[in-house]
Write a structure and sequence with these properties.
The chain is of the alpha/beta class and 431 residues long. It has four domains: 70 residues, Rossmann fold, CATH 3.40.50; 185 residues, Rossmann fold, CATH 3.40.50; 79 residues, Orthogonal Bundle (Helicase, Ruva Protein, domain 3); 75 residues, no CATH class. 43% of the residues lie in helices and 15% in strands. The longest helix has 16 residues. It is globular and about 80 Å long.
């Protein structure tokens, strides 16, 4: 994002726009001037400026404009900078499944055929997409990525294909879509299974003819784009349910690569841990020299529903809370240390609610369900403890110890538990 004055010491900002767009095609330029005129404004837009603003009355437009464009920028990958970060050499793993995936990706990279990457969330689909781009003949051109699940149907169409001026309310000027931005390069359509059914037809046309229509336009735009798509959905099931076009599936899956989940290649976990420790230690300001065998052993037995992405988060958490130069098992989240006690399979290592839930559950077990003692040990009020038990909806049975001497113990399923229940029974229960 560039914010530039029109009157510069050594030239004109209007002319500078052309040079900036030549050097950085994906950059966005907003021009400011104290002496605006229509010819300069028109020329600035022609040169590729996002907007031309007069200082003073229009100052309040600057931040909204920048914010609007900034929301779009993260979906672009900055050509060479990002490309150096991801390549097949950065893919970690020695298991047969991951080595087979890398081998297939290397072979298809030399072609221009569409590629469909499938796999669970966090298996590294974007890493593979960028690696394919970097090892292709298009590596010196743009790599543009967009998550199809991040936009509404109408906004996704505008982002992908662009629009003509006046196509809809607020469309003040013609805008390029991501397919135009990716011309001669690669576009990565993440979560393709989330794309609206009618938009799939427009995508199919691009794959078949290389042409598309901007919103509000009647003249087709011709592009030369390599398409890489990814999804964590079962597209065969989506087709059967009428949510995904069968013809688009066959067009996208000319070359299909499935990325295995981490739980199917547990022997690769130590390699990932070492790589994450090496990459994150300097960022966090820690020096880790040793990773304990127990640490790795516990990680290997965990199911990793979030795959490599979840593993990275857990390692980063361990680095943050570790006190010495060794990663030990006690730096892992409780749900990973004791997966049999995990009542919330969606818990992540950074989830504060998950930590609190597991801690309360452990203290309840320690006190044999005695709420008064539990609240004392936790340092919270009894009413607060009741509220949290109800809030977290413990599915295990909770032992309700009757508070008076000689009382028996009642076991009440949480599904029918009420904070008042313990008091009611404490008055009537006896041994």
């Amino acid at each position: 994002m560039v914010l530039c004055d029109v009157c510069l010491p050594d030239g004109s900002g209007v002319e500078l726009v052309s040079e900036l767009k030549r050097l950085r095609p994906l950059s966005e330029v907003i021009l400011l001037t104290a002496h605006g005129n229509i010819p300069d404004g028109v020329q600035a837009i022609k040169n590729g400026a996002f907007d031309y603003i007069t200082k003073g009355d229009d100052n309040n437009k600057i931040l909204p404009l920048m914010q609007r464009r900034w929301k779009r920028l993260p979906f672009y990958s900055q050509q060479k900078a990002v490309g150096k970060q991801y390549s097949f050499d950065t893919v970690i793993g020695r298991s047969p499944a991951i080595e087979e995936a890398v081998s297939l990706a290397r072979k298809v990279a030399a072609t221009d055929v569409p590629v469909l990457l499938t796999g669970e969330t966090g298996t590294g689909k974007e890493v593979f997409a960028q690696s394919i781009h970097q090892h292709s003949s298009r590596s010196d051109k743009a790599f543009v990525a967009i998550n199809c699940s991040s936009f509404s149907r109408d906004l996704l169409e505008s982002e992908m294909f662009g629009h003509k001026a006046g196509a809809f309310t607020g469309a003040l000027k013609e805008t390029k879509g991501l397919f135009e931005e990716a011309d001669n390069g690669t576009i990565f359509l993440d979560e393709i299974g989330e794309m609206a059914f009618d938009l799939q037809a427009k995508l199919l046309r691009i794959l078949e003819t290389g042409e598309f229509l901007k919103i509000g336009d009647t003249k087709p735009v011709k592009v030369n784009v390599r398409v890489i798509a990814a999804t964590n959905r079962d597209l065969a099931k989506e087709i059967a349910d009428g949510h995904f076009r069968e013809d688009l599936f066959y067009r996208l899956s000319v070359f299909h690569i499935h990325l295995p989940p981490l739980r199917e290649r547990v022997d690769d976990i130590p390699l990932h841990v070492e790589a994450f420790v090496s990459a994150l230690s300097s960022k966090i300001g820690k020096t880790i020299r040793t990773i304990s065998p127990d640490y790795v052993r516990i990680l290997k037995r965990y199911p990793w529903k979030g795959n490599v992405r979840e593993l990275r988060n857990v390692v980063e958490r361990s680095l943050i809370i570790s006190d010495g130069d060794t990663l030990t098992a006690d730096t892992l989240p409780l749900t990973i240390q004791n997966p049999q006690d995990n009542t919330d399979s969606s818990y992540s290592g950074f989830d504060l609610d998950g930590v609190e839930k597991m801690h309360i559950q452990k203290v309840l077990k320690y006190t044999n369900g005695n709420k008064t003692e539990t609240s004392r040990l936790l340092g919270i009020g009894l009413t607060t403890l009741y509220r949290k038990i109800e809030e977290y909806a413990f599915d295990c049975e909770i032992e309700l110890a009757v508070g008076r001497k000689g009382a028996g113990v009642l076991r009440v399923s949480n599904a029918f538990w009420n904070p008042r229940l313990e008091d009611a029974h404490s008055k009537s229960a006896s041994v």
